[in-house]
Structures are given as structure tokens and as C-alpha cells.
Design the sequence.
């Protein structure tokens, strides 16, 4: 196993950006989902760090990373990842992103085309469908259970206002139509080898959106997880690891 080799907090793009690095080899960036943290990738680290330098950040406003502006866009998040790579003097990488992380990678792959060797998009969508907007409309700090608050306080370490901001911004996504708006021609400019992983019972992004990405991204691969919802890789990591590792190694 590739153990912990570095990390910390750096001032990048006007906020404190926390990240951890494991293992050695070709760089692989792992991007968590909305209201998640880099530590969510814990079960995957021993496998991916065997032959990669795994870089795991807490994205803007999440976990140990700050967000003084209180605002958030996926486009901005992609710029943050690019700036972190610049700081680490990494010219090219591969990446895996789940939900928020996958949307960030769509921006990165279309804006930084020559920096991304390959990517895995888990529970991604080219735009927000009605199902997702309906959930966002109900996202707020009100009526949250003590259990939900407890988990969020363990993950996000800058106080309750940080948590409330995440829910407020998440609610605001329901009215966003520009930040996540990837047309087939734009997706067609992606040069990275791409694997799309999607649960066939995803309540936020119906599986048809994964097929739209597959149809538009040149030479992409599609893996549908049966009887699975949003972010299915965390429910059963084994099959995903067995699929993602050979893809990242270029074995298929």
C-alpha cells in the first residue's frame, strides 16, 4: 500500500485549500461529492495508491477547506483544482469525481483539455434535471435531524455556519442554469479517456443522463450499476475498484 506522503493547507484562489497525498506514481486526483469530504475516499486509498500518487482535496467550503466568499460554482471549483495542481507542479493527471466532483471534472476536461489523461465520472449529469432541482429546493438547515448535524459536524470542521452555507448554496443550485450546462458539441471537445459510472436507480440524475454523456464524449465507456442509486461506489466499493483500476492503467 502507498502510505501518506504529504499534504496540508495552502492559500489558493482566495481560500484555504486542504489536501492529502498518498502513494507514488502517476498523479490521480479524487474529488468527493456535495457536502462530502476527501476522507470519504478512505476505503479506496489502499488500492489506488498502490501505483498512483493519489491527491485528495477537501473542495472549496468542504471539510477543512474554507470559502470566505460563501459562493460556489462548479466552474470555480475546476479552477481551484487546476491551481492546486499548479502548486504541486503537476502538469497532467487522471481523476475520479463523484457527483460534485464529476461536475467539476466536466469543467476541467473542457477547460484544461491537455492536462487530463483520463477520468472516471460517477453519478454525473450534463445539466440539472427536474429530479435534482426538486431535491435542491428542499435543501436547507431547517428540519435536519440531530444525526445529520452530527455527521456534518464531524466532516466540516469550521463550525455550523460552514454547514449552513453548504445547504444554502445547495438550495441555490435549483435556480442555476449556466454553471452546469454541457451541450453535446462542448462535451465532444473532451480529449481525456472517459469512463462513466452510474446507478440505474439514481433518484437525482436518471440513467438517461449518463447515456447522454456517453453519446457525446468521444470514445467514452459506460458502466451501469444495477439496482443502485446516487454515488453507488460507496455502497459496494469492490466492483468499482475492479473496474476503475484497469481503466486507469490503460488496460482497456
Sequence:
Amino acid at each position: 500500500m502507498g502510505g501518506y506522503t504529504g499534504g496540508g493547507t495552502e492559500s489558493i484562489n482566495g481560500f484555504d485549500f486542504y489536501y492529502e497525498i498518498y502513494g507514488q506514481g502517476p498523479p490521480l486526483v479524487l474529488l468527493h461529492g456535495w457536502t462530502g469530504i476527501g476522507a470519504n475516499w478512505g476505503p479506496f486509498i489502499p488500492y489506488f495508491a498502490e501505483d498512483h500518487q493519489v491527491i485528495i482535496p477537501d473542495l472549496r467550503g468542504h471539510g477543512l477547506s474554507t470559502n470566505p466568499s460563501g459562493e460556489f460554482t462548479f466552474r470555480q471549483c475546476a479552477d481551484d483544482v487546476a491551481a492546486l495542481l499548479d502548486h504541486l507542479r503537476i502538469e497532467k493527471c487522471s481523476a475520479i469525481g463523484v457527483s460534485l466532483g464529476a461536475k467539476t471534472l466536466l469543467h476541467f476536461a473542457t477547460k484544461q483539455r491537455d492536462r487530463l489523461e483520463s477520468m472516471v465520472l460517477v453519478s454525473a449529469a450534463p445539466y440539472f434535471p427536474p429530479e435534482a432541482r426538486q431535491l435542491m429546493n428542499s435543501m436547507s438547515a431547517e428540519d435536519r435531524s440531530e444525526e445529520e448535524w452530527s455527521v456534518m459536524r464531524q466532516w466540516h470542521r469550521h463550525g455550523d455556519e460552514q454547514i449552513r452555507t453548504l445547504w444554502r448554496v445547495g438550495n441555490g443550485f435549483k435556480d442555476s442554469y449556466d454553471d452546469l450546462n454541457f451541450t453535446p458539441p462542448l462535451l465532444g471537445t473532451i480529449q481525456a479517456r472517459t469512463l462513466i459510472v452510474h446507478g440505474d436507480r439514481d433518484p437525482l440524475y436518471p440513467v438517461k443522463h449518463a447515456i447522454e454523456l456517453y453519446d457525446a464524449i468521444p470514445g467514452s465507456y459506460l458502466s451501469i450499476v444495477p439496482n443502485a442509486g446516487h454515488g453507488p461506489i460507496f455502497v459496494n466499493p469492490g466492483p468499482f475498484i475492479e473496474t476503475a483500476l484497469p481503466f486507469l492503467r490503460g488496460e482497456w
About this structure: The two ends are 24 Å apart (CA to CA).
